[in-house]
């Protein structure tokens, strides 16, 4: 059976239907990774977003 390393703790994880949290070894490691995305410790590189114009009216205020 193929195994992979857990992205969070680097333990071996069996890559099968029996591994509920694959590629993570546990729900804890999955949540740690999710938290890193939310806190922007993980990010996908790209072009920066343009600054919003403070003079621009909010779309909700338009008729």
Largest beta sheet, briefly? 2 strands, antiparallel
Structural class by secondary-structure content:
alpha+beta
Secondary structure: helix percent? 10-25%
CATH class of the domain at 1-41, named: Alpha Beta
Structure annotation, total helices? 1
Shape: elongated
What is the mean pLDDT?
86
β-strand percent reads: 5-15%
**Would you give the CATH topology of the domain at 1-41?**
Erythroid Transcription Factor GATA-1, Chain A
Number of strands: 2
Considering the protein shown, what is the CATH homologous superfamily of the domain at 1-41? Erythroid Transcription Factor GATA-1, subunit A
- Terminal-residue CA separation: 61 Å
What are the main properties of this structure?
63 residues, alpha+beta, Erythroid Transcription Factor GATA-1, Chain A, two-stranded antiparallel ribbon, 19% helix, elongated
């Amino acid at each position: 059976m193929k195994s992979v390393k857990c992205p969070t703790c680097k333990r071996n994880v069996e890559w099968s239907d029996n591994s509920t949290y694959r590629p993570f070894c546990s729900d804890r490691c999955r949540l740690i990774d999710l938290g890193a995305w939310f806190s922007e410790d993980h990010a996908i590189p790209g072009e920066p977003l343009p600054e919003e114009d403070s003079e621009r009216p909010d779309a909700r205020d338009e008729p």
